[in-house]
Description:
This protein is an alpha+beta fold and 295 residues long. 29% of the residues lie in helices and 11% in strands. The relative contact order is 0.13.
Amino acid sequence: MDATRMSDGETVTLKRIVKYKESDEVAIGKFFSSEPLASDPKNHCVPLLDVLEVPEYEGMVLLVMPILRPFNNPKIWTFGEAVEFFRQVFERCDCTGRNIMMGARKLYPNGFHPINIDFDYKRNRFARHWTRTERPPKYLLIDFGLSRFYDPKHGPPLDLPVRGIDRTAPEVQGDKYNEYSNPFATDIYYLGNMIKMEFVDVRFGFDFMVPLVTDMTQEEPSKRPSIDEVVTRFETIYRSLSFKLLRTRIVGRREDEGTSALYDFLHFFRRMRYAFMRIPPVPRAGVAFYHTEAR
C-alpha cells in the first residue's frame, strides 16, 4: 500500500504486520535502521522510516518504508551495471530475486506510479528515467518475515531450514528439511541460484560467473564458500574483466534479431555519450553527475 508522508509529501510504502511480537521482522528492521548500521554504506537492508501501531487492532503495526522498484526494472543494460549489482548484493547476503529491490529516486527523479511502475505518478505517460550507469541505484533487501537473529559469540549457527520463495535448496528437500544445518550456507545457495536464474541461464556472456555460482549452489552446504570467500573471489573476477566488456550491452538468450538491432543502435549512442561525459562503465551508488533532468 502506498501513502504520502504529510511532513514532506514523500511517497512511501506501508506494510501491515499482524502479531508482530511473534516475529523478528520489526526488531530486525529497527536493528538495521538504527545507528551505526543506518549510516553504514554496506547496509543494504530497506530502512524503516517509522513503525505505526494500529489503535483498534492489538498486535498490528504498519511499517513505513521508502517506495522501491524491483531490482531488474528497468533492465540491467550493461555488464558494468550487472557487476555493480553483484557487488552490492554480495555485501549483504540472504536474498532471492523476489526480495531484492532498489531505491530509484535518482534513477526516476520525477517519480513513478507505485502500482503501474512503468508510468508516472498520475499515469499520464511513461515514467522518464536515466540509465543505471548515469544514476546508479542502491539495491536493498526487503521482507524479513522469515529472518532470525543469531549471536556471533555462539559460533556458526545450526537451525532447521526455512522454506522461503526459492525452494530449490537441497537442504529443504525431503527428509533433509528436518535436519539442522548452517542457515548462512543456505543463504549462499539462494544468492548463487538467483544469479544463475536471472543472469547466467537467460543472458549471454556471464561465463565469468559460472565457476563461482557453481560453488555457491553445491549440493552439500558445508562445501559452499562463505560470504567473505564469495566477496574475495568476486573481486578477482571483477579485476579480470576488460573495460570493453563492462561497457558492452547484455543480450538476452530469447532476444530476436529485430530487437537486438534496435537495442544495439540505441546502445551505440549511449556509449558515445558515456565516453564524452567520462562516465565510468561500473556505476557506483552515491556518485553523482551533473545532469538535472531525466531523458
